Amino acid sequence: MNNFERRLEQAVQNNYRFSAGDILNKSYELLRDYFFYFIGYTLLWGLAKLLLTIIGQLTFELLGDILDLFVNAFFVAGYYYMGDKIYRKEQPKFSDFFLAGPKLLKLVGVSLLTSVVFLLPFLPLLIFVLINQNLSTELDMAISGNFFMPSFGLFGFVLLFLGALASLLSYAALSLGLPIITFSNLGVIGAMKASVKLMKGNLLNWFFYAFISLLLLFFATIVLLFGLLVAIPVVMLAQYVILADALKFGQEDEEIEDAGDLSEHFIAQ
Questions:
Q1: What total number of domains does the chain contain?
Q2: Which of 110, 143, 227, 250 is most buried as measured by Cβ atoms within 10 A of its Cβ?
Q3: Residues 151 and 134: beta-carbon distance below 8 Å
């Protein structure tokens, strides 16, 4: 068992729990002293997504979507790397945002599988829609731009409710997959299993965190660009803070050795 797995087991045995308010507050503290670093990086991410949109329009949309998956994984991990430097009280450089290259394929794998797992609970509803001729007609009306009132019926709404609930629970359980793959040598499936293991006792706390994050992003959108430049890094850093607090990044004692493979993310694997 490597150092990461020992820390994970200890966090689970200690019944690690987090507070949504505390996590977001710590995220803002990481951001505060390097405010312009994060603003510049977030603007760069926005510019990259704009360029991908243009590429998709000039070529074909699927290419833009595939490139967007890689770009998003790369930039999200960048927040984790910079947050890790600040969290460990090391002197960060702007180049620390761009360390995700060696882990990019794994990051994309986690993102892709998380999206698939998120959508799977809606499969029964999709099948129900496809075999219901009336709903198929209504969907055709929706695609053509005509207003319609869906007639799912009780069974359809039950499937919709259960699918949405299962999707949210699945996403919550896998929400630490990206930071875990960033700071460990685990594979894609191993990182997702580790996320489930750590989050299974924190699902309710995650819902509070997600709700507050959505409110934060909503009000940030109201104040347009500047608000989002603050809110996006805070929400991204929160995922790192949950993992860092649970696994006690930067701490050493007789039971938990130095960061080991957790710090090897600064070296190309």
A1: 1
A2: 110
A3: yes
